[in-house]
Specification:
By secondary structure, the chain is an alpha/beta fold. The protein has one domain: 3-Layer(aba) Sandwich (Rossmann fold). α1 crosses α2. It starts with a strand and ends in an 11-residue tail after the last strand. About 35% of the residues are buried. InterPro entries: PRTase-like (IPR029057), PRTase_dom (IPR000836). One of its GO terms (molecular function) is glycosyltransferase activity. This is Putative phosphoribosyltransferase.
Length: about 160
């Protein structure tokens, strides 16, 4: 489809290696990588391996409820991050896409109160994002089909 961009697993591997290379080239050495669940889990894991960062954390934030359907504001879901573990750290927030940027802004603002430095790495950033991430693999205004997004739900 012309109005969609499909990311393959091979492209994802190349994208996360390029993101990691950009982090290294920038001289940023994160103490921990904070994944924005769910799509950011894949990105955080790949970056963790590439950057040799074993300290991975997760924030589960609900904002999107469907295609072009979202809540009024992002909501933090349990388990809540232990801010004592974030104290004074250099944090790299990892997510799959900065669409509106509201979720990333929410997570970045949460971190900013507790960490020494925070930066964001995303595979895709959309033009309307209110957060301009430090590390971006590709900019697009298309709908993105990620390899981990199942076209239909499988439930018992």
């Amino acid at each position: 489809m012309a109005d969609r961009e499909e990311l393959t697993w091979d492209q994802f591997g190349a994208a996360t290696r390029q993101l990691a290379a950009a982090v290294v080239a920038d001289g940023f050495r994160p103490d921990l990588i904070l994944a924005v669940a769910r799509g950011g889990l894949f990105v955080a894991g790949a970056l963790g391996y590439a950057l040799d960062v074993k300290n991975l954390h997760m924030m589960n934030v609900e904002y999107y409820t469907g295609v072009d359907a979202r809540l009024d504001a992002p909501v933090l879901l349990p388990p809540l991050p232990d801010v004592a573990e974030l104290g004074g750290a250099r944090v790299l927030i990892a997510d799959d896409v900065a669409d509106t940027g509201a979720t990333l802004r929410f997570v970045r603002d949460f971190c900013a109160e507790h960490v020494a430095e925070v930066r964001c790495a995303v595979v895709y950033q959309k033009p309307q994002s209110e957060v301009d991430c430090e590390y971006i693999w590709r900019r697009t205004d298309l709908w993105i089909e990620f390899p981990w997004s199942s076209p239909e739900l499988l439930r018992s």
